[in-house]
Backbone:
């Protein structure tokens, strides 16, 4: 395997939120929403980030985009530590990195026309551009995401959910970004519309050579769109692997549990599901050692002692679990019939 | 335990309309089905297809006339729910038919302890002492898998996780051992691992009590996990109905095929399968349905005239147990294409 230069990389990245209580708002604890995460995304790659509600996916994505400052650690974008940059130094990076959200309706201003929403980031990043040129670009980008040029004068409420998501994607594309963080961009959509938007992501990714961090809780979606998948639990990455390997040879017990619970019209019927025991631990007071151990069917005493490191078990396939003596149930058998993503 | 071949719920020509700005608009157009004891029937369809309106109509929970208009028959044990007075209907809700909703927080009262809310559901219908009711509440909390039930019955809804709250909602729905349980997207708001727990729980409770379930969802993956039979809904009509494997593996209606083709599959995760299947266009608005088959404007097989002149019937077209609302269902062209869809 060739060692590619990452486009974006996090080193020991953490984000803690103080939890305040009472009238005086005294900090009574902290949630480690993102806890010492090392994640590397190569140019042109789509990395899927999965995990259940509250696992820290959105927070990791937002901190990588510098939408919020990290508590510690660094974010290296194309060789620059953007976490250590001043707002001024950060400015050019803001153009290169764009976000797409779950609910395009709440992220689009209802009183702004599509044209205004789309040209806004240009006014900020390319003030030298003429109004005419901005408008032409908006029309062109709209067309490239499958909307007609004439929609430019309309307002968000005049569009369906899928069309609004296309507008959200168009807005991100206006400034010619290199990297897009998409946070649950298809989760609110009906399945047939979800398919259209996923196809659009695949298409722009290839056409524009984009690098994508695709955040979702849906394993089937990530299986379709991502080249590699990272699995998060309580602020930490439990496993990261090339997509097929994650489904065909999961190496972390949490991944195995997630896979076995993922609904699927074909596999759904007669498979043995691992039903997770107990209740999720409080994020303010996570278990010692491996944070998954209170729910893990394979936990042994040693699991409570130290946080397992994310260790590479196969090329590009790393897991944070000390049990390398167990065989986990895959979601699928590896079929060489079809070609895996490069 | 009830006789498993016995029909417990029978719905005939159910129609629902709402009065709005542009007059009366019909959103459910003549739904028919039977539900047997111990059976799970899934009702699938995209947003706005009329799944929730159907379930609310069965429970008689729609706005009062003139804001809404229901017609048809909904029979449980020979009683037509649509013909009952409000008071008599109140007596059916709970022991005969009960419902769980998508968002557990909205169906629980935030200011009351969960134990009291379950007790309330029992007290309305049963003459029992406080002691007996409390014992029953504990039993129900245990039944739905809530740990430390004696302690948890004193908790308020916000003190529980989403999965635990949904268990409480299920406990309330099951308090009076209904013959029919309607579950309207009961796991859509939950994480997959919690969803798996709740689906397991529902299945186990069903085996134990023999209740019949109408399970509403938009997720074919969930359908595969729970259903014995499946009905697909489009624009307020059932467009295909059949046994689980028939509908998922051999869909007949072009709409069902389109939907199934648009679902990303775990089987092909990480493999280059090309773009997902999509369905062109949009679900029509209920007040602007196209002539003939409602799906015709989006259908790759539609034939002008044949498909657009009259609404097709839900008919066998050679497969009595797998009816479909498509005039071309037995057409060799359509059947040949279907073969190709099979792996
Ligand atoms: N602004 C904030 N203040 C305090 N706590 C926060 C804040 N944002 C997130 N958290 C907490 O951080 C943790 C991670 O949250 P995050 O939203 O990143 O999870 P997620 O994986 O995106 O979940 P979901 O799937 O629900 O979107 C949670 O415990 C959450 O409550
Ligand atoms: N109270 C109401 N008044 C007027 N129209 C309504 C009312 N409730 C629902 N409708 C309309 O009835 C149609 C069917 O809605 P319904 O809620 O049953 O869809 P659904 O299949 O449950 O969708 P979802 O998957 O989004 O829950 C929609 O067009 C909706 O706008
Ligand atoms: S009736 Fe015609 S338009 Fe409707 S689904 Fe069948 S083939 Fe398509
Ligand atoms: Mg999130
Ligand atoms: Mg609904």
Residues:
């Amino acid at each position: 395997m060739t060692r590619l230069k990452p486009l974006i990389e996090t080193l020991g990245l953490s984000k803690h939120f103080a939890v305040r209580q009472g009238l005086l708002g005294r900090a009574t604890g902290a949630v480690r929403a993102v806890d010492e995460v090392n994640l590397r995304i190569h140019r042109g790659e789509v990395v899927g980030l999965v995990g259940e509600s509250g696992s820290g996916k959105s927070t990791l994505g937002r901190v990588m985009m510098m939408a919020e400052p990290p508590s510690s650690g660094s974010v290296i974008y194309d060789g620059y530590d953007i976490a250590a940059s001043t707002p001024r130094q950060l400015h050019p990076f803001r153009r290169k990195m764009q976000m797409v959200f779950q609910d395009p309706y709440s992220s689009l201003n209802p009183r702004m026309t599509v044209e205004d929403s789309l040209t806004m980031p240009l006014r900020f990043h390319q003030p030298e551009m003429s109004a005419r040129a901005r408008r032409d670009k908006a029309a062109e980008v709209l067309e490239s995401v499958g909307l007609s040029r004439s929609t430019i004068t309309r307002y968000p409420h005049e569009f369906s959910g899928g069309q609004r998501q296309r507008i959200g994607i168009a807005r991100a594309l206006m400034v010619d970004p290199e990297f897009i963080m998409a946070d649950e961009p298809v989760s609110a959509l009906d399945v047939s519309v979800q398919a259209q938007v996923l196809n659009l992501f695949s298409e722009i990714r290839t056409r524009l050579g984009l690098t994508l961090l695709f955040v979702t809780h849906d394993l089937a979606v990530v299986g379709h769109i991502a080249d590699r998948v990272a699995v998060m639990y309580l602020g930490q990455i439990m496993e990261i692997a090339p997509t097929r390997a994650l489904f065909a040879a999961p190496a972390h017990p949490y991944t195995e549990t997630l896979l076995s619970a993922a609904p699927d019209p074909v596999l759904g019927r007669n498979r043995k599901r691992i039903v997770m025991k107990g209740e999720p631990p409080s994020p303010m007071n996570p278990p010692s050692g491996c944070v998954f151990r209170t729910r893990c069917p394979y936990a042994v005493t040693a699991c409570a002692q130290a946080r397992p490191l994310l260790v590479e078990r196969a090329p590009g396939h790393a897991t944070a679990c000390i049990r390398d003596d167990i065989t986990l149930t895959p979601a699928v058998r590896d079929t060489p019939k079809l070609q895996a993503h490069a | 335990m009830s006789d498993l071949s016995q029909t417990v719920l029978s719905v005939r020509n159910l129609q629902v309309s709402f009065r709005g700005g542009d007059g009366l608009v019909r959103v459910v157009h003549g739904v028919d089905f039977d539900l047997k004891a111990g059976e799970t029937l899934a009702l699938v369809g995209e947003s706005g297809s009329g799944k929730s309106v159907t379930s609310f109509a069965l429970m008689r929970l729609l706005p009062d006339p003139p804001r809404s208009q229901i017609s048809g028959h909904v029979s449980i044990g020979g009683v037509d729910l649509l013909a009952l007075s409000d008071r008599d209907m109140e007596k059916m809700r709970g022991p005969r038919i009960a419902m769980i909703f998508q968002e557990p927080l909205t169906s629980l009262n935030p200011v009351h302890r969960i134990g009291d809310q379950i007790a309330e559901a029992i007290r309305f219908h049963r003459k029992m002492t406080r002691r007996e009711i409390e014992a029953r509440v504990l039993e129900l909390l245990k039944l739905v898998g809530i740990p430390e039930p004696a302690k948890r019955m004193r908790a308020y809804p916000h003190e529980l996780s989403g999965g635990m709250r949904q268990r409480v909602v299920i406990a309330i729905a099951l308090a009076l051992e209904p013959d029919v349980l309607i579950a309207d997207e009961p796991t859509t708001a939950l994480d997959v691992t919690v969803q798996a727990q709740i689906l397991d729980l529902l299945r186990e409770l069903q085996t134990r009590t023999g209740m019949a379930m109408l399970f509403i969802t938009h997720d074919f993956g969930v359908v595969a996990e729970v259903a014995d039979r499946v009905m697909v809904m489009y624009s307020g009509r059932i467009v295909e109905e059949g046994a689980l494997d028939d509908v998922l593996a051999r869909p007949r209606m072009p709409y069902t095929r389109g939907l199934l083709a648009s679902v990303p599959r775990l089987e092909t995760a990480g493999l280059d399968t090309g773009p997902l299947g999509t369905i062109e266009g949009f679900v029509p608005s209920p007040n602007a349905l196209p002539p003939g088959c409602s799906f015709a404007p989006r259908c790759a097989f539609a034939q002008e005239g044949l498909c657009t002149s009259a609404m097709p019937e839900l008919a066998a077209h050679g497969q009595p147990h797998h009816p479909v609302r498509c005039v071309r269902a037995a057409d060799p062209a359509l059947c040949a294409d279907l073969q190709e869809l099979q792996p």
